[in-house]
Specification:
Order of helices and strands: HEEHHHHHHHHHHHHHHHEHHE
Number of strands: 4
Number of helices: 18
Radius of gyration: 21 Å
Strand order of the largest sheet: 1-2
Amino acid sequence: MTLSPPRPVAVAPSRDRFLDVVRALAIAAVVVQHWTMPVLGYADGTLTAGNALTTPGWWAVTWLSQVMPLVFFTGGAANHLSLSRGGAAAPWLATRLGRLLFPVLPLLAVWAVVPPALRLLGVPEQPVALAGSIAAQLLWFLGVYLITVLATPLLAAAHRRWRWAVPAALASMAALVDIARFDGVPYVGYANAVFVWLAIHQLGFFYSDGTLRVLSRRAALIMSATGFGVTALLVSAGPYVASMIGMPGAPMSNMSPPAAVLVSLAVGQIGLTLAARDLLTAWANRPSVAAVLGWVGPRFMTVYLWHMPALIVLAGLTVLWLDYATPVPGTITWLATVPGWLLSAGALLAVLLRVFGRFETRVPRCTPAPMPLLCVAALLAATGTLTLAATGFSSAPWPWIALIVVAYALIRVRVRNETRNRTPVPA
């Protein structure tokens, strides 16, 4: 497939419905997958949590349900688009950081007190530690995404000058990291938390500038087939495993740390969504769907941050209190219980959104801090969130919580006294 240089395109509308609906479907897929994966049981003070996707053959589901590549792709498109319209980098970065960090503050406040409170109520230590780990685990995305936001002005300049060479170079670095990782230097693999996700984020720039938006359906399907085909070749040749999420007992994980195979998976998923762009856009323009997107869109980060706490509350009520155990995945009993489980978790999440959604839709305004201060804030927040993701909330989280709070304070060094209710641009 050959891609010609981008042709001049008309200025895009203030909202791109395609990006909105792909982001919404991706977040929905993340939530549903996380709510259906756990195989829970409780005995003798120990909460067990298996993974339903270890069922033989179910790895194939992860090639579509592992949608973090689409989240980074749409994030890259939205970041590039808003930066292109926003002018100076400092005001853009200050706004972006504020909209990412403010919604996480109530999560930190709640989980600073939940583990000690559970211990006082007599909950055994192992379930408390597991709950604190699960609640913090998803902060990895925020940590990595803060780095991509910080890098966006530089990568946008590189995109204007070097075009396709930029994601190609990032993907090549990811491949080199994997070579070192599988050649006896395992910890170097975590460098791909930068290279893999930046490469995919960079692909979003080509949607923003019009290059991918003008692809024909046939070209998009060729792109998809190429991406999935390369993914299949990498898996069959090894050392990559078939599942695109981490599996207990697997010889390696494609996700933690991220592996270069996720870049080819991203190409396959992006091509598939681009092939369906007209259908998705028409669906998103239906009044009922547009209303849902209009409500959910400004709350994407809140949904992401709080959907696992909703699951933890549900598991605490049913598994620890009522002695419920997840049926064997794939059985008739399991299939019959999944809808009720999802509805129950959804009801709890709706309550959490009602309480905490305002921290995303009502972001305090401030004039931008100096650019060096914003860079320090982004790096401090990324360090805090990534460390919390690795260590959890139940084991001495205070230094890392403090780091994130300090980061937010730094971007609000020069604060206006008023706040304004407004819908944020997708982060």
